[in-house]
Amino acid sequence: MGLPAKNKGAILSKIATNDQHGENSEYFDGWKAYDKDPFHLSRNPHGIIQMGLAENQLCLDLIKDWVMENPEASICTLEGVHQFSDIANFQDYHGLKKFRQAIAHFMGKARGGKVTFDPERVVMSGGATGANETIMFCLADPGDVFLIPSPYYAAFDRDLRWRTGVEIIPVPCSSSNNFKLTVEAVDWAYKKAQESNKKVKGLILTNPSNPLGTMLDKDTLTNLVRFVTRKNIHLVVDEIYAATVFAGGDFVSVAEVVNDVDISEVNVDLIHIVYSLSKDMGLPGFRVGIVYSYNDSVVSCARKMSSFGLVSSQTQLMLASMLSDDRFVENFLMESSRRLGIRHKVFTTGLKKADISCLTSNAGLFAWMDLRHLLRDRNSFESEIELWHIIIDKVKLNVSPGSSFRCTEPGWFRVCFANMDDDTLHVALGRIQDFVSKNNNKIVEKASENDQVIQNNNAKKQNWRQSNLRLSFRRLYEDGLSSPGIMSPHSPLLRA
Amino acid sequence: MKQLSTKVTSNAHGQDSSYFLGWEEYEKNPYNEIKNPNGIIQMGLAENQLCFDLIETWLAKNPDAAGLKKDGQSIFKELALFQDYHGLPEFKKALAEFMEEIRGNRVTFDPSKIVLAAGSTSANETLMFCLAEPGDAFLLPTPYYPGFDRDLKWRTGAEIVPIHCSSSNGFQITESALQQAYQQAQKLDLKVKGVLVTNPSNPLGTMLTRREINLLVDFISSKNIHLISDEIYSGTVFGFEQFVSVMDVLKDKNLENSEVSKRVHVVYSLSKDLGLPGFRVGAIYSNDEMVVSAATKMSSFGLVSSQTQYLLSALLSDKKFTSTYLNENQKRLKIRQKQLVSGLEAAGVTCLKSNAGLFCWVDMRHLLDTNTFEAELQLWKKIVYEVKLNISPGSSCHCTEPGWFRVCFANMSEDTLHLAMKRFKQYVESTDSKRMISKSSHERIKSLRKRTVSNWVFRVSWTDRVPDER
Question: Strands, E, within B158-219: which ranges?
Fold first, then answer.
């Protein structure tokens, strides 16, 4: 009845019909499986526990209390409604002055008061999603390249490339040095890109890192700043996890480096920060993204572009008030760090009981879990996906496989721990421990029968438990698990 | 190597246009009844400030919605975490019903075909990303909203080719103008992907006639292209005539589930009808699944704040409120528009007859020294700097005839409007008297006659428009 699909494609743009939005990646498949069978402590205790969503739900009670205690910060309450018409009418893309000041102030506090931020450089955007896309539109033309250390946040493929036409080239980091980013690695990637006649416009990185949860040390960051200055390319640092630092970690913002380094060694026109309140404060629904640039032209351009994703004035007003409340902010930052630290400890300790270790980290809302010893084949991403399916299907946890973050080594998984209550976390840990021990017991009985198999594996001989564990997974593979591919039927996302 | 992108250095954002420069001047010297009574009065901003009291009253009566509660329970946490780009279901449902109500419930809107965006600014840009490649063109009737240059072209790389409309027929879209624009695009080697209209029109304040919409639907059908109908002002219709949406026409032509209907997209927003531009609530409505799917993903770049979605879902679900609001809004807009029109008439200045929008399209051609855009700009500067009124010159709206200005009336108090009219009248009278002194009596009569003739001609041409076919 309608036009054939091919014709239909010509009627819409390439952007609308390609899959450069990246939503067909495994990253979203896990979500889809969870959507079909979501865990609930009482209503669906056997459902899948969502550990693939980097949300911070630990301190919303503090924010809620503040909102209740400060009705004048809302334009809807009796105490605040006198502001309604002015605020409802306010669409100036500079944003409320009070809001910009409060954001600049909060950004400074979230970095331990080591740096101050200029409210005039604070530009709004539709979440960090909008901020990252906007900064690309400002710094690069279609076909230009940005380097990005991998593993990286999966949705960057959409945010940085989809509508901008910018290309991203990964700078692979490996477990051999704990996934640390080095200037040498960046330089190597830069040279390689240049050799292929690609126009490298800059380097973009997330610090603290998603998915690693680690932070750059001051020396490396300083050297990166020097590097981009020498090469005259941009440095964009997404500091969305700046205030998720716990257990004594020391976050060094690129703003601190800009302050401290010799003026001859840094061209500040090349330095840009992306920020958001979605992780530090746990308010992703409010869509507060920030572009902060030391380059005046970029500030000006990004501000014009912010028309495409301004923060709701209702939200600006509320946050302007909240983030100006020093007492609240100081207590919040301290308490958030404390709760995250506890959560992280409980989680990683629980994993250790199941002989699972994580990359050492002290920031972020997740752990970078090492499951390489459980892979059927340590060098195969297919194995990783098989293992991932087992985790979803049998252990009933949605975690994110390293390949969805473009990790170059199979076997790593990002597991989120701050998007659930304590009880759910214990259930999750219990499931992991149960599963691991159950399968170990089975294997102890059949160990002799499977000696040959064990010998054929790449098992570490000194760790019989690990080899048996892998064997247990192998057993599961043989139990007729579905082949790698989309596990869930068409999700609502695809039907949208 | 060029350090920044071409978007930074180009001026395709259009902000160097006089439309925005007038704003800048206003920002430097804004009128305030008490603090700055000699400041510039802002009449270049199409805002609706007439009905906030209705919303404020509603808030007072609805503490749950106001306090982010549902059935007495706080849903703060749920809202704080809600970032699903499908939007809050109850909000989309309420929005769909509100759009239906505005159209007299003659047509239905399916909430699942609504994509939320950060204002219609974002909605329009998103549609361009979905429908056009860089270098593709959309045809737009002139005059058009100056912000379209930024929204449709800047980051998308799309082009706008104007459909020239003229005062000879009240700026209506004609078939020949459409064809001419299409051919012009072809001459420029641009692939036409669609037509975009604003209905009711900004800056004209008029509604598209059924004839025009039929023409457009037939046109896009034959050319196999898209039609975007930006109906952001649909709730500001205050005349006797009913608003005819493109959805009405599709229904009446029995095209509702046709292939053509998949290429018709409606853009909406709450910035004008409800006067809430600060909340950034825009929407795309499309019958094409792929467009809805792609646009939904793109909305990640500009989602509507969850607390705002929640508040508005409660507000718009209250049918008693919405019907009272729409009625009252129309009444107040009508009165206010009349005040502007009569104030201008007292200065011997007429407007294009209109019954929608938050502005009038004012004919100041007789006040120009010469029939040129330079003269228009000169007149505009005088009005901004001497008369201290910020109004928008027609050239900033890409009008092809010099001398037309858009003047807003719904973004100020009655007193301020009266003051603005007083200032304007004084200016015109002083200009008239200057003209009287400098010209010979022969020329004096000629210029008087010219003004009268143009009014007469205008009134004759107007009868072509009214009444309209149902």
Answer: 159-163, 192-198
User: If you average pLDDT over every residue of chain B, what do you get?
Assistant: 91
How wide is the angle at C-alpha A16 spanned by C-alphas A15 and A22, nearest 5°?
75
- Sign of CA pseudo-dihedral B310, B317, B413, B345: positive
A452 phi, psi to nearest 5 deg: -55, -45
Query: Kind of pairing, strands B73-74 and A412-416?
Result: unpaired
B32-68 pLDDT per residue, tens: 999 999 999 999 999 999 999 999 999 999 988 888 8
Domain count, chain A: 2
Same domain, yes or no: A290 and A412: no
Domain boundary among A269, A295, A330: A330
Report the SS3 class of residue A187: helix
CB-based contact (8 Å) between A50 and chain B? no
- Residues A315, A346, single domain; the answer is no
Contact status, residue A29 vs residue A486, Cβ threshold 8 Å:
yes
What ipTM is given for this predicted complex?
Answer: 0.88
Domains of chain B: 6-52+327-427 (3.90.1150.10), 62-322 (3.40.640.10)
**How many CB pairs below 8 Å do chains A and B form together?**
231
Does residue B155 contact residue A163 with C-beta atoms inside 8 Å?
A: yes
A193: CATH: 3.40.640.10
Rounded to the nearest 10°, the torsion over CA B331, B335, B340, B342 is 140
pLDDT 10s digits, B98-141: 999 999 999 999 999 999 999 999 999 999 999 999 999 999 99
Do both A167 and A214 map to the same domain?
Answer: yes
Indicate whether A123 and A203 sit together in one domain.
Answer: yes
Chain B contact for A12 (CB, 8 A cutoff): yes
Say if residues B225 and B193 touch (Cβ distance below 8 Å): yes
Amino acid at B315: L
Question: Do residue B259 and residue A297 have CB atoms under 8 angstroms apart?
Answer: no
pLDDT band at A10 (very low <50, low <70, confident <90, very high): low
Catalytic-residue membership of A201:
no
Per-residue pLDDT tens for A173-231?
999 999 999 999 999 999 999 999 999 999 999 999 999 999 999 999 999 999 999 99
Tens-digit pLDDT profile for residues A144-166: 999 999 999 999 999 999 999 99
B241 to chain A nearest CA, in Å?
A: 29
Confirm if B43 and B337 have CB atoms less than 8 A apart.
no
Minimal Cβ distance to B59: which of A84, A127, A159: A84
Task: Report the CATH number that the domain containing residue A48 is assigned in CATH.
Answer: 3.90.1150.10
Cα separation of A139 and A298, whole Å? 8
Report the 10 Å Cβ neighbour count for A134.
30
Q: What are phi and psi of A206, to 5 degrees?
A: -105, 125
A293 phi-psi bin (left φ>0, alpha ψ -120 to 50, beta other): beta
Cβ pair B123, B283 in contact under 8 A? yes
DSSP string across B404-444: EEEEE-SSS-HHHHHHHHHHHHHHHHHHHHHHHHHS-HHHH
Cα dist. B51→B181, B279, B297, B322, B327 in Å?
A: 40, 16, 34, 12, 11
Residues B55, A55: C-beta atoms closer than 8 Å: no
Interatomic CA distance for residues B299 and A126, integer angstroms: 9
C-beta separation of B78 from A57 below 8 A: no
Q: Do A304 and B56 touch (CB under 8 A)?
A: no
User: Considering A48, A103, A135, A240, which one is annotated as catalytic?
Assistant: A240
> How far is the C-alpha of A394 from the C-alpha of A48, rounded, in Å?
10
DSSP element (H, E) containing A94:
none
Catalytic residue flag (residue A92): no
Q: Do A284 and A245 fall into the same domain?
A: yes
Burial of B411 (0-12, 13-18, 19+ CB in 10 A): buried
